Each structure stands twice: as structure tokens, then as C-alpha cells.
Amino acid sequence: MQSEWPSEIREKCKDTIQFFEENGILKVQTRLILSQDPEDFTHPTVLPDHPLLERLVLHTYRSLMHTGVLTTLAQLREKFWIPKGRRVVKAILGQCIKCKRLSAGKVNPDTAPLPPDRIHRVAAFQITGADLAGPLSLRGGSKAWIVLFTCAVHLELVSSLSTESFMQALRRFWARRGRGSTLYTDNGTNFVGAANALKSLDWDFIQAECSLMKIKWLFSPPSDPWYGGFWERMVRSIKELLRKCLGKACLTYEEMLTLLSDCEATINGRPLTYSSDDPKELKPLTPAHFIQDIKGRETFDLDLIDSQHILKRVRYLHTLRSNLRKRFYNEYLGELVRSPKVASKRKMISPGEIVIVESKNPNRMNWPLAQVIELFPGKDGVERVAKLRLASGEIIRPLQRIYPLELSASDHLIEDHQGTDIAAQNPGPTAADVLEEVKKSRRGRPLIPVKRLNL
């Protein structure tokens, strides 16, 4: 090791450290020559930067049960002297795969802009997000679930999580609020089943005979609640209202329907803009303004109404609706700014990197390893979703569920896992530790992940 030490670096070290040779081995002259300590401690051997030094440091680190830089350096100092020891040991210990799996931080991409469907001028419920919440315990031991449609908020009550129950709730929603054009959901089995049922229809025949356009059903990426933030926030508001209203009460099915109607009216009546104390100021905008007609205070006698009055009334209502939408864009959308959160300093991942994928298992050592295949950019060009290759197949996950190890597939990985060194030199995810639990149905059949992605 010392023979391969560059002479220019050795000369620089001599300016700060006093060396001497003993039997052809370079050692350090310390101030402990009068000490009764062992010779290796009073005159430690110089260990320059070398691949063998990396193996020695990692071996010492693992024998000390991954205790840290200072403890490892102190143990090495009993026999060896490493120039710039703290910096060198810290850099080497940063390559420990086991520690990386336990301390790796997730990728935090920048906050995404609002999608076009959130800011387009369309009718209420024309573009809708749906989700389920529950279960709710009812009197008699039965259970029920809430189906939430937003924006604004429309609530339905169902007795199961089946596809049939959701289809019935969706039909009631369309009958009362009108049939929208776009529906956003997560990848729940009931949502996927309903989407497949609608897809099986002959939409060419339906459009030709009934002039009905096909429903555009969009799914969020798997394991990614951030893409459904606009309905997840409404679910939270509904849950908070129910906790405060119900307490320990146990209602019947009809009573729960009535309570949900009250909660729906309360949520739709929440102010979206600033509420002023000045009585002369305009009332704050609420979702109810967009789903209910604005009723005037005037009353008319039916025998006095003529065509001129009707035309004036129609023009008046049209003016009110126009002013309402102008206020919504000026007072509400104009106040939506990006979060001041500082972007993560961690470098973004790239195809070919080895990462660990967050799972429901609380033990991070059991999280599967994966290789990044492809990154999907959003409409603003920022990558927020990745396709990964595991031993069980390919999956799609948001970057918030991915923890980079800052390793490429071509790196030589040496991992101390339960006392066994695992060498992973194959760029493909064929190592034994690349595992993921295969999700199965109630009858034991493996579930095929939904390969739908809309950015």
C-alpha cells in the first residue's frame, strides 16, 4: 500500500506529520514514545489511500456493529495512522449498503402546478374526483362507506366496497348532478372494475345513437395519494365533521344519510376567499355558489310577467354568473401560489440507479431493491413518477416512495446482511434480496397491477 503511495502526496504529508521507516514500513513519530502503550499505538503504521484501506475500514466498521465514524477511527488508530482520517473514513462508511438502506432519504420533487382540469372554466362536477371513506358502524352491527365526489362535494352512502355498490352510487350522482366528462380516482379494485365495465360498452354505437361522449376515466399512479390531493383533503374534512357530530352515537342507515346531507351542505358552504368583517364587502365565495342558482329577493305576480321581464331576468342571472366566475378567478385562483418549501438538495435519480422502494413493512431492511427503468415527466417537465424493475416484475411508483442508494447497476455491491456478504454485480434485478410481496386476491390469484398513467 505504501509503495503505491504517490510521492507528491507523501511529501505534502511530511510537512505536517513526522515519519520514520522501520524495516521498510513507514510509521508516524508521535509524542507518546515514553508511554507504556503497545508499539503499534505509539508508532502507528501509515495507511495511505488504497482499495485495501476501504476493505479494512468496512471490516472494522462492521465488527463494531456500525457504530459510526469516531468509534471506527478510534479503533483503527490503535494500530494505524490514516492521513486525513476523519474525512477518509467518513467517505468510506458512506458506501455501506446496509447503512444506506436504513438512512437513505426519499426523493422530494418540486411541487407540481395545478393541472389544467383544475383551472379550466367548466361546469360544476363536469370534472370530478371520487374516493371512498369509512367504514362507519351503524346500529344493528352493519357497516357503511361514504362515496365522495368533488369539486364541490357530493356524498353517497353505500353498504359495501364492491364494484356494484360504487356503480349504483355513481349512477345516483350523475342523475342528481349531471353526467360529467372526466373522472379521477385511485387504483382501488372497485374503481378499476367500474372503469372496465364502462370500457366494455360499444361507445361508437352509443355516440352515434345517443350523442353521448365516452367518460374519460383517469387513474392516479399506484401508491401515490398526492395525485388525489383535492379529494383526499375533502375526505379529511368529512371525517372531522363526523367525529365531532357523532361522538359515540350509533345511527341507523337513514339517520346516517340525513347526517351526510347536512355535512355535504356544510362543506359546500365553506368560504373559499377572505371573509371580511365589513358589512359593505362582498360575501366570500363558497362552492354552493356554483352548484345552486342565485335566487333574487324580488317577487313577481304571475299576471304581470311578460316577455320583457323574462328577458331582463335571464340577462340579470347571466351577469351574476359571469361576475361569480370572475370573482372566483380573481379572488381564489389568484391567491394560489406554490409552497415556499425549499427543493431537496438530494440529486434526482436517473435510469439505471439502484433504489429501495417503500412498502408497508415497517422494517426498512425488508423493503425491496429495484432498478430505475424510466422516469415520467409531468406537464411542467419535472419528473415525479418512475418505472422500476424488481425481481417480481415491473411497477410504477411516485418518487416520494423511492429512496436512492446513489449506486448504479454496474457498481460492485458488498452488503453485510445478517452476517452474509451478498455480491450484486448483475445489472438486472436478479439478486436474492430483490423481493416484493406479490399481492393476491381473496381466492389466491395474483393481482395484475393497473398500467395506467396520466401526468
TrEMBL record:
<dbReference type="InterPro" id="IPR001584">
    <property type="entry name" value="Integrase_cat-core"/>
</dbReference>
<dbReference type="InterPro" id="IPR012337">
    <property type="entry name" value="RNaseH-like_sf"/>
</dbReference>
<dbReference type="Pfam" id="PF17921">
    <property type="entry name" value="Integrase_H2C2"/>
</dbReference>
<dbReference type="Pfam" id="PF18701">
    <property type="entry name" value="DUF5641"/>
</dbReference>
<dbReference type="GO" id="GO:0015074">
    <property type="term" value="P:DNA integration"/>
</dbReference>
<dbReference type="InterPro" id="IPR041588">
    <property type="entry name" value="Integrase_H2C2"/>
</dbReference>
<dbReference type="InterPro" id="IPR040676">
    <property type="entry name" value="DUF5641"/>
</dbReference>
<dbReference type="GO" id="GO:0003676">
    <property type="term" value="F:nucleic acid binding"/>
</dbReference>
<feature type="domain" description="Integrase catalytic">
    <location>
        <begin position="112"/>
        <end position="295"/>
    </location>
</feature>
<protein>
    <recommendedName>
        <fullName>Integrase catalytic domain-containing protein</fullName>
    </recommendedName>
</protein>
<dbReference type="InterPro" id="IPR036397">
    <property type="entry name" value="RNaseH_sf"/>
</dbReference>
